[in-house]
Amino acid sequence: MTKLKEQVFHKIPQSQLSKIHPHFLTEEIYQKLESKFQNVSTQELSIATIESLRFLYLCAQAEGSLFFPGNQLIDDIWHLFVTETEFYQSLCKKFGSTGIIHHTGIKYKDYLKTQSYQDTHEEQLSWLASYVLNFGEIQKDSYEQLNLAQALALRFEVDLKGLNDIANTLIQANLELQSQKEKFSDVIQDIAPHFIELDRSRKHLKSAFTRVMSSDWSTKQLGPEHLEKLFYVSPCLAFTIWQHSAALERLHENTVWIEKNKSLYEELKSATKTLGLGITHIVKETSPLNGEKTESGYTVNGTIPWITGVGLFDLFVIGFRSSTSQRSTNVVAIVTSEDLHKAIQSQDQLELSVYSASMTYSLELNNLVISQDQVLSETLVGEPTRKTASAIKIPELGIAMRCLDECRKKSLSSEAQLALVRIAAEISNLKEKSKDTSVDLVELCFRRDEAIRDALRLLTLVSKGSSINKNSIVSLLVQQSLLVDIFVQSGALLNRKTKSLG
Fold it and tell me: Cβ distance 416 to 458 under 8 Å?
């Protein structure tokens, strides 16, 4: 009898082994599969094993928005994986999931109650197109185990060939749609009503992130006006996208790296690929992330305490410290999301009361290998670093502008109207000052946060009791502004705010 391992991976094309690799399943797991399913033919078991892996791969990309498409055998194999806790955690990580892919026993009829018929229909067509795009056309032996594929064929009154034709048509239509960039203003208008979901749902944030990053602004450059509008719509989304902009600014003057990576740099500028940031920890006296110098670069171990967009960004700019008996150096390098995931020893999602969908984590890394070509800068600790003045200074004013527009929807007293006019005038004044390259940035940010605070307080006062409803826009704006006001701050600004209270 052909061994299960050989049977499984003989059927997967070499071009797909980067997604589903033989080493993803251990010898112990193969033995348990063969032992548990002795009454199932090797042929049938190998197909079911392949499909269970394919399902988990797509789940990792869809962040839990995919209903199980297989038969009972595939489900039983999935359950076997889940019971092998250490193996399953490793498997989810290898597929690029930001956490454990949870096994749910929810029945299909109950799942249908959780969303509209249209959402379910679109999700199922998305699965069909994603399956064919990633794994090729559905084969007969797989089709016989994929209940969802059979249900779709029945719904559309087609055979297997017709179903694959539908999938290929969807793929082609999506490629054509992607080549036609949406207008940034249209995307903003479309996602604006989903304020609450953008803060709390990874699925909604990831979808909005993709649409914004592929809209027509990317043919130019993400500017203050774009981020201001994003903060107006969703501070959580804006905060996440700003990471890309801030990381990209760190590349602009690195002419050596740009010369060696022209193609990648153009992809990053156009947002065809996206860039995250994890470097704030290296300003501390003792760095939690450290690299050992090697002949070809560095081997990095330790913790990145705060990094946003894990599972969103294609690449990350990270910082670490490398020390010898003679000196300590702060090193900044660029790494791919894939390499970062491979090195993750453990990960903890930061329990932010807001921005919970931003995929912000503390990551413990083990033996992250970085070549010298990936290094962007090496600076001795204590030496002054050259800082490029950012063109984007205070886009968070979008929060204040949203508050004032919410106030305008209400019946205002004459005193409230006067307060609104004063705050609006201050916002306009600050936006004008932000264009001055010689402006005191600490003072500018201090006044920005005062304007946001005043706008929020006015909105809270005119909203009265509804402002304490946890699902209200007022409540969420208040909480999100605290992250801007307290946590994402320079030391100098925090000192300025503390002194103002004395």
Answer: yes
- 301, β-bridge pairs: 290
Q: Where are the domains of the chain?
A: 4-178, 184-268, 272-380, 397-500
* CA–CA dist 333, 104 (Å, integer): 39
Which DSSP string do the residues of 194-208 spell out, in sequence order? GHHHHHH-HHHHHHH
31: tokens are 């033995």
Element holding 182 (H helix, E strand): none
How many helices (H) and strands (E) are present in the chain, helices listed first?
A: 23, 8
CA distances for 472 relative to 64, 195, 269, 447, 476, angstroms: 26, 10, 36, 26, 6
Burial tier of 116 (Cβ tally within 10 Å: 0-12, 13-18, 19+):
exposed
Handedness of CA 80, 86, 88, 94 (dihedral sign): negative
Instruction: For residue 217, give the nearest of 206, 202, 228, 207 by alpha carbon.
Output: 228
Residues 6+ apart with CB under 8 A from 119: none
CA–CA dist 451, 86 (Å, integer): 50
Residues ≥6 apart with Cβ < 8 Å to 303: 281, 288, 289, 362, 363, 364, 365
For the record, the structure tokens of 177 come out as: 């749609």
Q: Which of these, 468, 466, 399, 407, lies nearest to 430 by C-alpha position?
A: 399
Q: Strands 315-323 and 275-278, how do they pair?
A: parallel
pLDDT tens, residue by residue, 72-88: 999 999 999 999 888 88
Counting Cβ atoms within 10 Å, is residue 198 exposed (0-12), middle (13-18) or buried (19+)? Answer: buried
Torsion of CA 234, 239, 243, 246, to 10 degrees: 100
3-state class (DSSP) for residue 352 = coil
Global confidence as pTM: 0.68
What homologous superfamily is domain 272-380 in, according to CATH? Butyryl-CoA Dehydrogenase, subunit A, domain 2 (2.40.110.10)
Choose among 204, 206, 130: nearest CA to 168: 130
Can you tell me the distance from the alpha carbon of 94 to that of 303, in angstroms, rounded to the nearest whole number? 19
Answer for the pair 261, 230: CB distance below 8 angstroms, yes or no.
no
Over residues 252-307, the pLDDT tens digits come to: 878 888 888 988 888 888 777 889 988 876 767 788 999 999 999 999 999 999 88
